[in-house]
Specification:
The structure holds two protein chains of two kinds. By secondary structure, chain A is α+β, with helices and mostly antiparallel strands. Chain A has one domain. Chain A is about 20% helix and about 45% strand. In chain A, the strands form four sheets. In chain A, strands 1-4-5-8-9-14 form a six-stranded antiparallel sheet. In chain A, strands 6-7-10-13 form a four-stranded antiparallel sheet, with helices on one face. Chain A has a two-stranded antiparallel ribbon with strand order 2-3. Chain A is elongated, with a radius of gyration of 22 Å. Chain B has a single domain, classed as Peptidase S8/S53 domain (Rossmann fold, 3-Layer(aba) Sandwich), CATH 3.40.50. Chain B is built from eleven helices and 16 strands. In chain B, strand 3 and strand 4 form a beta hairpin. In chain B, helix 8 crosses helix 9. Chain B is globular. The chains are: A alpha+beta, B alpha/beta. At the A-B interface, strand 11 of A face helix 8, helix 9, helix 11 and strand 16 of B.
Chain lengths: ~190, ~350
């Protein structure tokens, strides 16, 4: 988890530099250039999925079941954000997320779309406004099949299978989370 | 069948709180229902007269000779705190929020005699009747279960409530040894209990007894015929007492007074043990083992809401632990120490 966070930090720094370059270079805009704004692996939903893997319980025979194996993914959701400039002061923000999948959860691929515009209130200042919306990228937890011996076999929330909740009740607590779907960003920058 | 309500008889020197009543058949045999509690002599003599327990008074006899008991739940403030005499399993069970709701535990016991004794389940020293103690204990294990009280001196049949029923029997029916259970002319009360255990319509948690013999064994020429009548019944569980709640690193042993499973495999397969830590509560005896299993059954029943009493019974029996017991042997411990956490856990998951 820490490793992914540091990836995000370093790549975001790169993205900021690119964005600064973009705003400082009118020539680029005229050529409808597409720039890489950000690339990172992991997201709040990835972190949430990973957190589901904390804990475990004992089966009837005393053997330990760890949640970790169910909420581990070999590939962590990667997000790529791009900016296509359409005028000197406006551009389309777009991007995608690859999604990720573990044994008991899935983060769907996502698509990001939005715009960026900027004003120049004075010669040495820039007021920027961006808006993006994300489609897809939902985190869905999958149920388990639990065998309770004499009491039968049930579809259950894997994490709550050994709790006191009725097996069918546990399904209400399967995680279904949406990513941050809309993002509005306002920035005012003064150079002196 | 005749009944001698209020007759006292000393059945065992180690038992107190005896209620006399006749068991009869064509031969009119006499037996005594004895509450299965062990008390220090100093406490046993500290009995005092008192009125009928107000909750048991809610049970009245109908014309069909079946008792009707109104539900009575104990005050939550005194019954929803984890106590040090409880297995850690109970606390783990509570944390998920299910505490026996939707299940009815009927305590068949003494709620009307003048015999009272003192103890402390962690909520302050109290002096009360045997049935009031066992009722309190079951309600502390499964605080959201509906608790009913059925005075065993009424002898009317035990009525079942809608949903899962658990019957707690912290008493025995003693008579001269040598008869078979089929020769006994049971009262409507015990006949109904035996019928429920046979048909699997209620979980029957029966205190194993405090004579340090095998279930159904003879002591001073007498036998507990209620034990014998429940042997091999689908939803009956005999409950013995351990001197502590066992762990793998600190294994528990049978309490010195507790009856054991013995060599009868039909008893062994329906025999559980739980810790009765009298050093913490001042209360000893398998009387205080049975309500723990009653509470466990209610908690398991609150999870598996569609399970039958026989399924609940089997779940508790099949998930008992043997690795927490010193020198485990089926003839002593039966299936082993009841484990609430394992009874709630899957056998496998994928």
């Amino acid at each position: 988890m820490r490793e992914k966070s540091s990836n995000r930090a370093s790549l975001c720094t790169t993205a900021l530099l690119l964005a600064a370059l973009c705003s400082a270079s009118p020539a680029i805009a005229q050529e409808m250039t597409t720039l890489l704004v950000d690339i990172h692996q992991g997201s709040p939903l990835s972190d949430q999925a990973r957190a589901l893997g904390d804990g475990g319980f004992e089966l009837q025979n005393g053997s330990r079941v760890s949640f970790n194996k169910w909420y581990h993914a070999n590939w962590v959701d990667m997000h790529v954000d791009l900016l296509t400039q359409i005028t000197q002061d406006t551009g389309i923000l777009w991007g995608f997320g690859t999604g990720e999948e573990g044994e008991k959860y899935r983060i769907a691929p996502s698509l990001k779309l939005g715009f960026l515009t900027q004003l120049h209130p004075s010669a040495n200042s820039i007021l920027s406004l961006s808006f993006t919306t994300t489609f897809g990228g939902k985190l869905s937890e999958k149920p388990c099949q639990a065998d309770y011996g004499d009491l039968g076999s049930f579809s259950v929330n894997c994490r709550l299978a050994a709790g006191e909740m009725a097996p069918e009740e546990t399904l209400k607590y399967l995680v279904n989370a949406k990513p941050e779907s809309q993002h509005l960003w306002l920035n005012y920058r003064v150079t002196f | 069948m005749s009944r001698s309500r209020g007759t006292s008889a000393v059945v065992r020197p180690s038992s107190c709180l005896n209620r006399g009543k006749n068991m009869s058949n064509a031969h009119w045999k006499f037996a005594v229902a004895a509450a299965l509690a062990l008390l220090p002599a100093s406490i046993a003599v500290a009995q005092e007269a008192g009125g009928l327990d107000p909750l048991s008074a809610l049970c009245v006899n109908s014309q069909s000779n079946a008792s009707i008991c109104l539900s009575a739940t104990l005050p939550a403030a005194t019954s929803q705190t984890l106590q040090n005499w409880m297995s850690p399993d109970v606390g783990a069970a509570w944390r998920a929020g299910y505490k026996g709701q939707g299940v009815t535990i009927t305590i068949v016991d003494d709620f009307s005699s003048t015999s009272k004794f003192s103890g402390n389940f962690g909520i302050g020293t109290q002096t009360q009747r045997h049935g009031e103690w066992t009722r309190e204990e079951a309600s502390m294990i499964a605080p959201l279960a509906t608790i009913r009280s059925k005075d065993f001196s009424t002898s009317s049949s035990v009525a079942l409530a809608p949903g899962l029923n658990v019957l707690n029997l912290s008493y025995g029916m003693y008579a001269k040894a040598g008869y078979s259970p089929s020769q006994i002319g049971w009262s409507a009360e015990e006949a109904s209990i035996i019928s429920y255990a046979t048909k699997g319509t209620a979980v029957v948690s029966k205190a194993a007894g405090n004579d340090a013999v095998a279930v159904g064994g003879v002591t001073s020429g007498q036998q507990d015929y209620l034990d014998l009548a429940l042997v091999g019944k689908a939803s009956a569980i005999f409950v013995g007492a351990l001197n502590s709640n066992g762990t793998t690193s600190n294994k528990a042993s049978m309490a010195w007074y507790s009856n054991t499973a013995g060599s009868n495999t039909a008893v062994q397969s329906h025999f559980l043990v739980v810790g009765v830590t009298g050093d913490k509560t001042g209360l000893y005896g398998t009387s205080f083992a049975a309500p723990i299993i009653s509470g466990y059954a209610a908690i398991v029943g609150s999870k598996f809401t569609k399970a039958t009493p026989t399924q609940i019974t089997n779940q508790l029996l099949n998930t008992a632990r043997t690795d927490t017991l010193a020198n485990y042997s089926a003839s002593v411990y039966g299936k082993g120490e009841a484990s609430l956490s394992r009874a709630l856990a899957p056998l496998s998951i994928k």
